[in-house]
Amino acid sequence: MKDLTAIILAAGKGTRMKADLPKVAFPCAGTPMVRWVADACRDAGCSRIIVVVGYQQDVVRTIFEHDRSIEFAVQAEQLGTGHAVLSAAPLFAGRMHGDALVLAGDGPLIRAETLRRLADLRRSASAAAVLGTTTLDDPTGYGRIVRDSRGRFERIVEQKNAAPAHLKITEVYPSLCCFDTALLFSALRALPRDVVSGEYYITQVPEMLASTGEAIELMPGIPPEEAMGVNTPEQLAHVEQVLLKQRGGRPHAGAGARA
Question: Of these residues, 16, 247, 250, 258, which one is catalytic?
Fold first, then answer.
């Protein structure tokens, strides 16, 4: 898909994984998690794939040592998802056009079809951004999708900032979106720090764009398992079983790749 870039966030440590390894480098069904994500982006037709690295970046780079199509951006400090995406800005110098998918490197169940749908909707709706959403019985930990009285996007509220009314919302943002590239980076340069955490969140960008009159579309119905990120060894084991079941018990073609 021409002018479709994927920005994969892969700079975090993943302290709950209980091992000294970048979270996205943990093997899942035969290959590091982040490779599943990159392969989905490639299958979706992305013309560029940028992986944002930080913690133990050499480990993540090694995962792609035989794939020269992958580009890397470095997040030197862990200052949030918005800061991570902004770290990729130098790679867009003179190329602020097209679409940018922003997704997490710890979601190996994401499908290329879903990524294509996000990009197609962004273009057909001429929206500044399209956010994938999913509905969960237990939305704990996820940013909640707040809609206005007409059912349109209003904002995303992070769990740590959520009021009791927000915590009752079951429609969540699973770190999956497609932006107009130029509008994304313009907003990121003006992104304020979150008042609670002091970090810069990509989840604030759609609200910022909407406040200037830009259209923000929602794409509900992302399957809960596809939207699932891995934060613990137990979640990793669950995702691995889902992947193996989907593939008829076959591991990734890159089984044995260095993590």
Answer: 16
